[in-house]
Amino acid sequence: xxxxTPPLRQKNPHLPFGDHQHSRFYGQDILSVNQFNREDLDYxxxxxxxxxxxxxxxxxxxxxxxxxxxxxxxxxxxxxxxSFTSAMERLGGSVIxxxxxxxxxxxxxxxxxxxxxxxxxxxxVIVLRHPETGSAALAARYASKPLINxxxxxxxxxxxxxLDLYTIQAELGRVDGLTVTMLGDLKYGRTVHSLxxxxxRFNVRIHYVSPEILRMPTEIIQELKEKGVAQSEHAHLEEVxxxxxxxxxxxxxxxxxxxxxxxxxxxxxxxxxxxxMRAAKEEMIVMHPLPRVGEISMDFDDDPRAAxxxxxxxxxYVRMAxxxxxxxxA
Length: 330
Ligand code: NCD
Known about the structure:
alpha/beta, Rossmann fold, five-stranded parallel beta sheet, four-stranded parallel beta sheet, 14% strand, globular, binds N-carbamoyl-L-aspartate, transferase, Asp/Orn_carbamoyltranf_P-bd, Asp_carbamoyltransf_Asp/Orn-bd
C-alpha cells in the first residue's frame, strides 16, 4: 500500500516564555548530519561539555523534569538505546522503552506512522532506530514532536557521528588538519556514512580502507568530493596507517548481507592488534562505534590510543545535549 506522506509541519511552533534565546534546535528533528553547519557543531559541543561537567559534579539534575522520551528500537542496540535512557534520566526526565517491538503492536502489523503518532501522545520526543533507510525521515513527517534518528538501516546515524566528532575534538584537541582512516565495512556501516559527511565540514584528509565488496558508496565519495575533501581508497591498511591521526574501525555488518558466504569471505579482513599498531603514530586514536566482533583485539584495549570506551562515554554527554536542545532547555 502506498503511504500518503504529509508535508513537513513546523514542530512545536509555540516557544515557551523565556526559551527563545537559547533554543537553536527547539522542536527540531535530528535526521541527518547534513543539517548541521560548523556553528551548530560548536554549539552542540559547548552544551555537551556543560553536560559532562554537570554529570561529573552532580550526576543527575532536573533540566528535563516532567519530560518523557519514547525510545523506539526496531533493531538491536546496547549503547545507543541505553545512553539515550541514561541521558534522559540524568536530566530528570523519564523514558518509555520499546526495544522489543515484538511485544508491541508492531507485531500486529501496525505501520511506523501509526506507531509514531501513538507514542507522541505520551511522549515529548521520540528516538527511533529502524532497519530501513529513510524510515526516520518518514516517521518525522508524521510526528509533530521532535524525532531523533538513532540509525536508519544503512543510511545515517547522526547522533553517533556527533559523538564521534566530539570524541576526536576532546581527544586530539582539533579536527582541522587531521588524517582520518575509516576501516572495515564502509558499504553497510551507517556510522561511517554519517561521520564522513560530518567531517566534510572540516579541513581533513580521509582514507577508506576496505575489502573490494565493502567500499564506501560512490554517492558519498562524490558528495565529499564536491565539498573539496581529499579522499583515497585502499585495500591495505599498511598503506596509510603511519600517517593516520584517527583510525575509525567498523564491524562487518553481518545482518545486512543477503549471502552468508560473502560475509564469511570478508569478516576477518582486518584485525587491529598491538603488533599492527606498532606502525602507527604514538599520538593518534583508535575509535570504534562498537559492538566489535573481533576486528580489534582485546590485547590492544590498554593502549592509551584505544579511545573506543571513552567514545561511548562521550556519547552520553552529546545525547544529553541533543535532548535538552530539541526540548528547548539548552
Ligand atoms: C553501530 C550501529 O548500530 O550502527 N552501533 C552503535 O550504534 N554504536 C555500529 C554497529 O552496529 O556496528
